[in-house]
Design a protein that fits this description.
12 helices
């Protein structure tokens, strides 16, 4: 009889252990997986999946595997609240969410109310990490993408350094594009320069001849463009049709396949600020590239900044959960603000990347200017 009880107890213990092992730590990934921004959303997901696999292969976090809970936001702000509630219902403890700034702004209040930490892997809108900066419960939004403010600084400084004094600005009419435009105007003022021409365009516009003709009439020698890849590609293609060969310095989406697929040969020489390009110099960066090639069997990395942002956001969340020894959102947030151990990532080795007052994980030291050369994105000449 005793043996029977022992056997029952052992079986119960085994069952409990199996249940614990199956109890994953769920990380939300609300991204555009279809529609115009899908190439970026899928690239972020590529990086996230790589990081989750690497972490789980090393034993996970707190003895538990990470699980990526993926949802398609379709790039639609009107679905944002519903999608965020669906993620919360699935028991996520933190998120690596965000490609389109307008979408993130739409679900950010629900995320903040739930005290759900989010490390934004791709959205660049400056206001994202500032919106709840003074909230009594603390700010739950972090980022590992270069903010619009930082990108605008890099774009303007690069143009001025190259001797351009007649600068034309173009931007899309989304919160992303208008925010980037405002940041570029502010940065131009630091050089005592005013744009000779300003033009805007809507998502889906293909003919940019009117905006470009205005820039040409103003005598512009360079185009600074804030928009997503497809429309930036149409600017390059429209310029070629008009016989205009002005240099294009675009926001980070300029380095995506969405841009290349539209611009085709006219992508050559286009420049943009990036957090990652292939040919990494760090050990962690090279390991990241090797893992990507092994997993996805592609000749080059598709949308490298998006892949790297997805990857590194997961690494940082794992480090914070490990340090907090908890899946409580407030404790994860506090750990992110006080990471005690450096985290080697694809973009950088993150040494105390965040604080209570600063949730931007990327600065000038971890961003580069990149250029399209023969169908590949690489570091631009200084």
């Amino acid at each position: 009889m005793k043996l029977s009880h022992i056997g029952f107890a052992a079986a119960t213990l085994c069952l409990a252990s199996a249940t614990l092992a199956a109890d994953t730590i769920k990380i939300g990934a609300l991204l555009p997986l279809t529609g115009g921004s899908a190439p970026l959303g899928l690239a972020v997901r590529d990086g996230q999946r790589l990081a989750v696999a690497q972490i789980n292969a090393r034993g996970g976090v707190m003895g538990r595997n990470l699980e990526l809970v993926e949802l398609n936001d379709e790039s639609k702000p009107e679905l944002a609240e519903k999608n965020m509630q669906a993620l919360l219902a699935k028991g996520v403890v933190a998120c690596s969410c965000g490609v389109n700034t307008g979408v993130v702004l739409a679900y950010q209040p629900a995320m903040q109310k739930a005290k759900l930490p989010n490390i934004v892997p791709a959205s660049a809108g400056t206001k994202l990490t500032k919106a709840f900066q003074n909230a009594p419960e603390g700010n739950f939004t972090f980022r590992v993408q270069a903010s619009d403010t930082l990108q605008a600084q890099m774009m303007v400084d690069y143009a001025v350094k190259k001797g351009h004094k007649k600068i034309a600005l173009l931007h899309d009419t989304t919160p992303y594009g208008t925010g980037g435009h405002d940041d570029m105007v502010k940065q131009l003022l630091t050089h005592d320069v005013k744009a000779v021409s300003v033009g805007s365009f809507k998502i889906g516009d293909a003919d940019m001849s009117a905006q470009l003709a205005k820039a040409r009439e103003a005598g512009a020698t360079v185009l600074l463009v804030y928009g997503i890849g497809t429309e930036q590609g149409h600017i390059a293609a429209s310029g070629a049709k008009l016989g205009m060969h002005l240099p294009i310095i675009g926001s980070w989406a300029n380095a995506t396949d969405s841009f290349l697929n539209v611009a085709a040969a006219h992508a050559e020489g286009a420049i943009s600020p990036q957090t990652f390009v292939e040919g990494a110099t760090s050990t962690a960066g090279r390991e990241f590239e090797a893992a990507y090639r092994s997993e996805y069997k592609r000749a080059r990395m598709t949308n490298p900044t998006a892949v790297a942002g997805g990857h590194d956001s997961i690494l940082l969340l794992a480090a914070a959960i490990r340090q907090a020894n908890s899946t409580d959102g407030a404790k994860i947030k506090a750990a992110l603000e006080r990471l005690s151990v450096p985290v080697p990532g694809a973009i950088a080795t993150y040494n105390k990347p965040f604080s209570e007052d600063d949730h931007e994980g990327i600065n000038l030291s971890s961003a580069v200017m990149a250029i399209w050369k023969k169908g590949a994105i690489m570091r631009a000449p200084l």
